[in-house]
Amino acid sequence: MSKHPTGVLVMSYGTPESMEGVEQYYTHIRRGHPPTAEQLADLKGRYNAIVGGVFPLRENTDRQVRSLQDKLEQLAPGQYRCYQGLKHARPYIEDGVESMAKEGISRAIGIVLAPHYSVMSVGAYIKRAREAAERLGVEMEFVEEYHLHPKLIQALAERVLGGLAKLVDNGQGAAHPVKVLFSAHSLPEKIRELNDPYERQLNETAAAVAEAAGVLPNRWQFTWQSAGRTKEPWLGPDILDTLKELAEEGERAVLAAPIGFVSDHLEVLYDLDIEAKAEAAELGMQLDRIAMLNSDPLYMETLAESVMAEDGKTAKA
């Protein structure tokens, strides 16, 4: 038996460490093409609106990695060591794999802080990690999805119930029943041609959470958000369009449940908390949002159990 623990590469999208790093971050997202002055000003404006020049977003990801390490240590003392790998910021995915190799890790499990698989999202993380692992001689397997893990569904259902209760306390939910809007980051429509599971998995999660929270089928629906600004068509309808439709149907209270995201970051704190809330107010609707998972113990257990299950499959193979 190896004296080294199994490495765990915890991957996520990444975020700048400060306002000074926004341009470099945006350039990396654009595959080395610097943003225009207008694009950079728009992105900086969004970050300023949610963080006011102070950047707690990176610490949130760091805390998730530490919390997963703590949970794995509780469940399997001394067996796992977590490393961080980010898609668009340091430490990059390749940096995380390199750190493992330098510390003598020969076996590892990779997991992405995103429950739903798409070849364009989770698949892209895995591709980069696998290439780095092969180059550095690290044997690595991956958790590709965990969108129906019972503890994930429980954690999300608790948040939906809490959000509904808050709206009722604020005077909604009696005269105006609440509509639950599940959402996730849109992707280009072309994923449908690839028989990509992303859309199906998201709808499965939404249905499972709604059932666990006791939300009737006619009181929830799925929508998309945060589509990229490219010429190709993206999955829709966008949440802003959905809100307009709901207003026309007479809905007056909406609970946003962004189940495609696990952390407080730009797509949640700006796209929902500022942009969607402003649209809802304009339409005469109240919009609240569920709390994000972040380092929730049930989410950490979801990740830890998923890692250990994948490790167990690898050991038996």
UniProtKB/TrEMBL annotation:
Q: Name one Pfam family in it.
A: Ferrochelatase
What is the E.C. number? 4.99.1.9
Q: Which GO terms describe its molecular function?
A: ferrochelatase activity; metal ion binding
Q: Specify where it is mainly localized.
A: cytoplasm
Q: Does the keyword Metal-binding apply?
A: yes
- From what superkingdom does this record's organism come? Bacteria
Instruction: Outline what the protein does.
Output: Involved in coproporphyrin-dependent heme b biosynthesis. Catalyzes the insertion of ferrous iron into coproporphyrin III to form Fe-coproporphyrin III.
Task: Tell me its family.
Answer: Belongs to the ferrochelatase family.
Name of this chain's protein: Coproporphyrin III ferrochelatase
Q: Which organism is it from?
A: Paenibacillus beijingensis
